[in-house]
Amino acid sequence: METRTVGPLLELNKAVPSFDESGLPPVPFSMRLMPGECVVVEARDPENAIQFADMCSGLVPLDDGSVKFMGLDWAELHDREVNALRGRIGRITRRPSWPTFLGTHLAITLQQLHHTNRPMDDVVAEATRLSEQFGLPGLPVLRPALLSPADLVRAECVRAFMGRPRLLLLEDPLEASPVELENAFLSALTDARDKGAGVIWLVRNNAIWQGYRQGVTSMWRLADDGLVAVRTG
């Protein structure tokens, strides 16, 4: 596997999230994610899953400790550096995140166009290729509200895997997805890991990820006392 990052790709070092800002328990969170690893985090509360992914992305203020991505502390970065780093994160979230006034093709490419300096033609070509990989007939141009639930899940996968992300924060897309999407998702996940990406796969149902058990590096539970390691064997 490609491991360009020296040391942890993502490191939560006794990070205490602001309860007022996130609703997460104000206790120390500690976790290390190395390049190529896949960590499953069981989070029964969908809002906690969203906020935990936000914390990994540097979007939750901390009362203590630190969160570092690619060796850089989110709290010490300027806006330009933050934007560049967030361009390396692919995310599937349960938070409403599709703009109602844009075609889905623009919503899919917006993150790459905003956070990177890639030519638009390159971004569109990659989005089209991924759309076909995830079972869409091409890059969808209808507004997200006009897509079927199954096609919207496919579009979420396309958006998350755009730009060769170094970190994937995935609030389980398989839970409400068409069965035929599973193989495409797991193939894309494995390919991203082979290229050095680290994965945090947030699940509500402990059974969802079982088909990928052999590929999981470790499992955690998001509980009232923070992150608790769970034995997978």
Structure characterization notes:
This protein is an alpha/beta fold and 233 residues long. It has a domain of 152 residues: P-loop containing nucleotide triphosphate hydrolases (Rossmann fold). Helix content is 33%, strand content 23%. The protein is built from 7 helices and 10 strands. The strands form 2 sheets. Strands 6-7-8-3-9-10 form a 6-stranded mixed β-sheet, with helices on both faces. Strand 9 and strand 10 form a beta hairpin. It is globular. The two termini are 24 Å apart. InterPro entries: P-loop_NTPase (IPR027417). One of its GO terms (molecular function) is ATP binding.
Describe the structure concisely.
This protein is α/β, with parallel strands linked by helices and 233 residues long.
Blueprint of the fold:
Elements: E1 10-17, H1 19-22, E2 29-33, E3 38-42, H2 46-56, E4 62-69, E5 72-73, H3 79-86, E6 89-92, H4 104-115, H5 120-133, H6 149-161, E7 167-171, H7 181-194, E8 198-203, E9 218-223, E10 226-230
Parallel strand pairs: 3-8, 3-9, 6-7, 7-8
Antiparallel strand pairs: 1-2, 1-4, 4-5, 9-10
Order of helices and strands: EHEEHEEHEHHHEHEEE
Taking pLDDT < 50 over at least 5 consecutive residues as the criterion, the unreliable ranges are none
Q: Give the amount of beta strand, in percent.
A: 15-25%
Count the DSSP helices. 7
Q: Could you give the count of β-strands?
A: 10
Structural class: alpha/beta
Shape: globular
The CATH class designation of one domain is Alpha Beta
Q: How far apart lie the N and C ends? A: 24 Å
CATH fold-level assignment of one domain? Rossmann fold
Mean pLDDT equals 90
Helix amount: 25-40%
CATH architecture of one domain: 3-Layer(aba) Sandwich
- As a whole number of angstroms, the C-alpha radius of gyration is 17 Å
Strand order of the largest sheet: 6-7-8-3-9-10
CATH superfamily of one domain: P-loop containing nucleotide triphosphate hydrolases
